């Protein structure tokens, strides 16, 4: 019924395993998952530390693994290029992609149910990593294993962009590493410089300063821009809206939208914890304090002059709004530059769009005495290995993980379908350096100045909250900020109810 | 061969006598189906199906109750908490709001689907293009709910959705699209549900209308009744049992189908469309609080059963049964 190679380590499914699959998994996922589970086959040719590099790469030849990932460019690009991996290792990897909430559910059931249908999975830092960190394999013993191939550049913090390894791989303590950075989505500003130039004089006459966007532009400036464009529209002029928020049903980005504005103004964070490490017991949250209420008021003010579909615009929808020319500015994740620069689908292509860091805090909006910074948040997707898998499956999966995050693969991804690198050395490739200015064949590289040279560095970088209840946290913040934007609650009420729900969530 | 058959018959007779069956030889006359050997034989044949059904319904049911009495979350430490999961639901605003939204959503969907479905069935019944039109009307029902949700998601889209443009053009909507407005999002979902499931009501009602005795209709017309009076005095009592089935089916579907909502709004904006089953899904598979999710699921199950029984009791009123001219017996079978 199933193909089982002669040198297979697990030639049959044990009775115990079969019952586990039948009882636990089938109840949770249905019979379909059984076929996925049985689809994993592991074969092994033992090697020693002194074996050749080729032998180390090929020690699991004949193995089949399943990788569950988000439907983002790196996954598609690696799937397109998977033959190169197969040729090098003889390992077949089936890459299944879906939307992040679905990946979170499927991977969560697999990990939490004690199964290993997905030997490899996408570890988006907060939605997947924070709740399931304990169920992933610790990569540290594999990183130093001389019987496995290793990346010549290594895996230390310096090999990746600032903070990336901590963001996706480290949770609650620094003893374990559960993922290697694989994909990044970092916020930056996309704006229509053609429109800004066109209306600059008109704007200056009214507001007393030029309609231009720089790294020093503040959220107050953004509010002014949005108000200006909305007034023009109401006066009957054919202009787009000035700004739009992410406030759709993709709660993860909806939560990030208010978070970056909160952080920019005084470096406010949700909990008094190490933002990059996270905490299992974060204690009382800071929602409801004077600073958070003030920024919620400003967030509502900005929402009132933004695109009218704010409450339906998730990340993808917002980008469609921008591509269709309905807004002049968005704070978006840098991987979307490739779609914005596609002349066939975007009216904002052809040099009309400029990329810059996220808006800076406005000094007059800061009441907690903190700094005004360009609050930049992100989602760093790592590639992790299922802790329930057998040691051989973990080792075979590791070979794929280091290949997928290697310099050459990341360069291919960037060049191919517009991925976003996580390894620093990709920047040293002359083609990439050249691609950072127009005309370019790698449109995402146009964002690199704003993102890699500026936004991801401290003090601008904000991550949190890495807590086990991260998904419920997102849900609460998203729903209550939506209620506030819709006028159902005041900013004070919204912040108070967020605090009450989150403290209750964390047992405070 | 002949010899072998004779031997078999002899052997069979011996077995019958051994088991005392000989006095009750099976025949195929009236009442034969009630005989005990036949019943045992039937039970034996049904046993695999009964065992399978038990395995996939009874086992999960007791597992659900077990989980609802434990803290089962993403942490490895599952532990007994007694009725704590249930007690906490009373202080959970999303749980109580979820119930209110679910009742509102079900009432809206059910009312509209019954009214439109019956009206369509009456119009279609006996019309010249009945078969063609019924086929056309049934098409939405054949679509997967997720696909239907996606189609409407794009039709409602504020940037390129055709329905958004239409609703705006005729002044029903302002600039904000239907799913982006906290006050209209529920209506957006109700419209999709009505579009997809009204045909089911139409189909069932049509089946009922075909069984309305023509002589009653004609006699009523001779007495001077118009079409409307004819419908209320003759057709409606006759299709009553069919409507009961339709209402029960849709009522239970609305209590468990969340596909449209997950695709269209995910429960938002705010919590405007987070009906209880959506909240249950969130708690179980987004927040991975399986113990709390099991408690919500169990309360949902119990309330659904109770409401279902109340509905049956209301619609199974003997007076109404009598008014339906005995057609109600169909449901008792």
Automatic annotation (TrEMBL), chain A:
| Subcellular location per the Swiss-Prot or TrEMBL entry | Periplasm
- SUPFAM superfamilies reported in the protein's UniProt record: Periplasmic binding protein-like II
Q: Which UniProt keywords apply?
A: Membrane, Periplasm, Signal, Sugar transport, Transmembrane, Transmembrane helix, Transport
Membrane-spanning residues where? 21-42
**Predominant location category:** periplasm
- Membrane recorded as keyword: yes
What the entry lists under InterPro entries is as follows:
Bact_solute-bd_prot1, SBP, TAT_signal
Q: Does the keyword tRNA processing apply?
A: no
Family, as annotated: Belongs to the bacterial solute-binding protein 1 family.
Q: What is this protein called?
A: Multiple sugar transport system substrate-binding protein
Organism name: Rhodobium gokarnense
Species classification:
Bacteria, Pseudomonadati, Pseudomonadota, Alphaproteobacteria, Hyphomicrobiales
From TrEMBL, chain B:
Location (main, coarse): membrane
Q: Which InterPro entries match?
A: MetI-like, MetI-like_sf, Sugar_ABC_transporter
Protein localization: Cell membrane
Question: Which PANTHER family is this protein grouped with?
Answer: GLUCOSE IMPORT SYSTEM PERMEASE PROTEIN GLCT, TREHALOSE TRANSPORT SYSTEM PERMEASE PROTEIN SUGA
* Record family assignment: Belongs to the binding-protein-dependent transport system permease family.
Regions that span the bilayer = 43-66, 105-125, 132-156, 187-209, 229-249, 293-312
Question: What name is this protein filed under?
Answer: Multiple sugar transport system permease protein
The answer to whether the entry has keyword Transmembrane helix is yes
ABC transmembrane type-1 domain residues: 99-311
Topology with respect to the bilayer: Multi-pass membrane protein
Task: Tell me which domain of life the UniProt entry assigns to the organism this sequence originates from.
Answer: Bacteria
List, alphabetically, the SUPFAM superfamilies matched: MetI-like
- Which keywords does UniProt give here? Membrane, Sugar transport, Transmembrane, Transmembrane helix, Transport
